[in-house]
Amino acid sequence: MAVKLGPEDLRKSCNPDAFDFATTDDIATRVGTIGQEKALKSLDFGLDITARGFNIFALGETGTGKRTTINAMLNEKAAGEKVPLDWCYVYNFQDPDIPLAVSMEPGRGRVLKKDMEDLIKALRSDIPKAFESKEYEKQKNQIVEEFQRKQNELFSKLEEEAKQKGFSIKRGVAGIMILPLKDENEPLTPEEFGKLDDQTKKEMEKTGRQLQERLNEVFRAMRDTEKFVQDMLSKLERAIAFDALHAPIENLKSKHKGNDKIVAYLDNVREDILGHLDEFKSQEGEQQSPLPFLKMPKQEASFARFTVNVIVDNAETKGAPVVIESNPTYLNLFGRIENRILYGMAVTDFTMIRAGSVHRANGGYLIVDALDLLRNAFSYEALKRAIKNQEIKVEDVLEQYRLISTATLKPEAIPLETKVVLTGAPNIYYLLYNADPDYQELFKVKADFDTRMDRTPENVAKYAQFIAECQKAEKLLPFDRSGVAALVEHGSRLADDQEKLTTRLSVLSDLMREASYWARKDGANFVRKQHVAQAIAEHINRANRIEERIREATIEDTLIIGTSGEVVGQINGLAVLDMGDYSFGKPSRITATTHVGKAGIVNIERETKMSGKIHEKAIFIVASYLGSRYAAKKPISLSASITFEQLYDMIEGDSATCAEMYALLSSISGVPLKQSFAVTGSMDQNGDVQPIGGVNQKIEGFFDLCKTRGLDGSHGVIIPKRNVRNLMLKQEVVDALADGLFSVYSIEKMEEGLEILTGMAAGALGPDLAYPENTVNNLVMKRLTEIKQALEAKKEKDEETSDIQPKSSLDVKE
What does the pLDDT read at residue 765? Predict the structure, then answer.
């Protein structure tokens, strides 16, 4: 049976006297996250479990507090955890293109960097001094003098041998010459040599060749000696430099004892320095450039290989790091290798490797918005690869797309141990879960943030605590008990349920800020109920331009919606238009026509392809209901059409099923429907009324139209009984109902609404499969019978006409 709702049914009020505080200044804060017990439990599990693949996806609508909750939980948890290692890149002396990754205890990275800077600075001073020492000069002179002595000894022997054979060895600018002598001191001139007899010439030439061979032997011996001397000098320099190097290198090795990679690196540093002593002995400034306008780089640039590139420095970190990456591009996540322009060319080295947020979150937690991650090319796949392989690689992601391959660094990978938390809307979660096989293996924990929570006394108290916490944090005016009660009621309105409260607390926070603004403007010391109501009204006023234009068009009869009188085959349906930032109810005129025929029920929207699948299903349900109610004895025939008048866009949903049924039954029976009512509600095949969405906006949309035209007590709305708990109507509607100017009925069966709209009994099907007289169903059955009889009469007439017509030759069977 239809129930006429009272004012108490239209809105569940919050009694301000139920609170034990005067204003929110009296409330203790620190409430934390409210209404998300399931999500909090999932987060606790996901953050505590250490098994591979148990990364977290926190999903929920905007404003449910996902990011705030996760940040708070992670900061609290991370504060008590171990600080992760520092990470550095150092020069690879064996393969310079693959810089070595070195891990160190927190804060030790910057110590190693400073130690290496001090070491090189000291060695650049100490090594040149060592080579300027008297001991070095003494040993070097001894080696050089010994070489010169041997060199002179070899030349002396050769000169003595040449003299005995009548030749002289002269050293000149052009080199060493072997000359024949005419006496002991004077060389033989070419003219004098030409006057000699042939025998003497041959003997002298032969002797000259022998001496030349001996000279070559002396040269070879000198070169061997010179090489030996160079080796001796190199060993001397190495020994001198080693003495200068040994103590500081060993001190560093002792300082970083236990880190085998650093100890090996320091050994390589020592070997490299000993192999490049000229760089340390040289104290030159700028090199001279062949082009006067180009300055060559200073010699100091060659010492860059001894630099320690600290890419992750956790010296100041307290606990495990919590990194929020707001712009998850590939480079921001995984770092980059920078370049500098030198003489028009891009050059780089290991000192230009820069860390990404994954490096900084290593050993801690990384928070990324899933939609932002998917929007950036390469980022999602690279993050999955890093999690799967448990390593971080700094790569040039565009290298594979270049036509010409360029030489670049390939830094050693860094082991990854990070808990990744993705946040996003539910549709993003389900898209990844169903479309990406890897996702299920890498993000096994789902933390689902709900948009509603139960409106229990405990949760109402938490609501008040949240309001107080937000008020104090934002430095808003205090809210008195009436203001808090108004916010609680609005929380139920946002949840579309009298027994629920919204958990989209960011929306509530915005309303608090607006209410505080209007209270200050009013000169009040507290935010009261009227200020909250004003904030809601002002917010609507800023967003409802389209609603006002539609209402104006309705008042002007441009959009034809009747709110008085009775019409056959016409009813007011209710729909909701959602503009994104604002949604409102829009009455729609639904009409139905019937006539003799067998076409059945024609959905005009479907025929014009303006109808969605759910609405098409609703029309089939209407047809099925007609068959079950009126074809119990014999089949029925009918041609009917149903449409939403002045509809210029797509229609979807089944919330107008009852309204369409009423319009159709009115058209069939000829019983008019009250136009002062609007109807919303879905219906199943048995006539049971099902709940719909947006009931508050739908009722208020029709109420505003009727109020503009003038409420006279005849206006009302029919809704499903199961939607009564969703009613959180504005106070204006409640007051109008209390004054008898507006009514709201709830129904469980479609027939209950039919009786309200027609003023007649619907009529129940009797044992004889007939409906009582003077009922709507009886009139419908009679009309359907008339249509069927008319069709049968037409059929008989057509058959008689066919029998008297002469057959053509084509009709004669052979």
Answer: 84
Mean pLDDT in the chain? Answer: 87
Summarize pLDDT for 176-223 with one digit per residue, the tens. 777 777 666 677 777 767 777 778 778 777 887 887 787 787 778 878
Mean pLDDT of 423-450: 94
Q: Determine contact, residues 645/709, Cβ cutoff 8 Å.
A: no
Given a cut of 60, whether residue 284 has pLDDT beyond it is: no
Nearest to 74 by CA among 49, 51, 38, 44: 44
Q: What percent of the chain has pLDDT over 70?
A: 93
Q: How far apart are CA 90 and CA 102, in angstroms?
A: 7
| Positions of E strands within 748-807 | none
CATH architecture of 18-30+452-543: Orthogonal Bundle (1.10)
Using alpha carbons, select from 741, 737, 738 the residue that is nearest to residue 709: 741
759 phi and psi angles, rounded to 5 deg: 75, 10
pTM: 0.81
pLDDT band with cut points at 50, 70 and 90 for residue 175: low
The CATH class of 36-84+317-449 is alpha beta
CATH topology identical between 36-84+317-449 and 560-790: no
| Total number of residues shown for the chain | 814
Name every residue whose Cβ is closer than 8 Å to that of residue 48 and which is 6 or more positions away in sequence: none
Question: What spatial distance separates the first Cα and last Cα of the chain, rounded to whole Å?
Answer: 68
CATH number corresponding to 560-790: 3.30.230.10
Give me the DSSP letters along 240-251: HHHHHHHHHHHH
Residue 761 · residue 755 · CB < 8 Å: yes
* Separation of alpha carbons 517 and 532, rounded Å: 10
Where b means 16+ CB within 10 Å and e means fewer, 532-564 reads bbbbbeeeeeeebeebeebbeebeeeebebbbe
Cβ(702)–Cβ(718) under 8 Å? no
336 vs 801, residue with greater confidence: 336
Phi/psi zone of residue 139: left (φ > 0), alpha (ψ -120 to 50 degrees), beta? alpha
Q: Where are the domains of the chain?
A: 18-30+452-543, 36-84+317-449, 560-790
CA separation (Å) from 629 to 601, 632, 763, 783? 15, 7, 11, 14
CA distance 660 to 592: 8
Among 275-284, 542-551, 631-640, 647-656, name the most confident range: 542-551
Residue 600 CA, chain-centre distance (Å), reads 51
The C-alpha atoms of residue 358 and residue 345 are separated, in whole angstroms, by: 30
CA pair distance 436, 450, nearest whole angstrom: 24
Tell me the pLDDT tens digit for each residue of 123-167: 888 888 887 878 878 887 887 877 778 777 777 777 777 777 777
